[in-house]
């Protein structure tokens, strides 16, 4: 089970923000405070991509990898209320230009690039955020840009509580 954690002091109610296509309830179950069952955890702190990944790793997680449209919307929906702008995800081509890899090592089996992306503008864009353009798809951006981020952990709530 993957968990969702809000790493900020704001409290989110039991229902996530919705749009015309997606409506879902966050469920805590046996999870600790600010952990929710599904596909990631969310942080409102702005960090570079590398600092965000290091922060996630310190929490026994990685920047989120996204493998479906539903997962993309689930990760983005809670952030809309707190920071509707771009959010780092775990995709980058820092190791080899044009070879996209998830920081958690999972396969890249889903992509949601905005129009004309990725473009490696000025040869300086190697890390990926969501919420690009009016369709809120993915964009490559300089890894040093301070941006909110989403971490994901595969540690179940019952294991976490032990």
From TrEMBL:
Keyword Calcium among UniProt keywords: no
Entry keyword set: Disulfide bond
Superkingdom field: Eukaryota
Protein transport in keyword set: no
InterPro entries, alphabetized: C-type_lectin-like (IPR001304), C-type_lectin-like/link_sf (IPR016186), C-type_lectin/snaclec_domain (IPR050111), C-type_lectin_CS (IPR018378), CTDL_fold (IPR016187)
Domain C-type lectin as annotated: residue spans: 47-152
Record protein name field: C-type lectin domain-containing protein
Source species of the chain: Seriola dumerili (Greater amberjack)
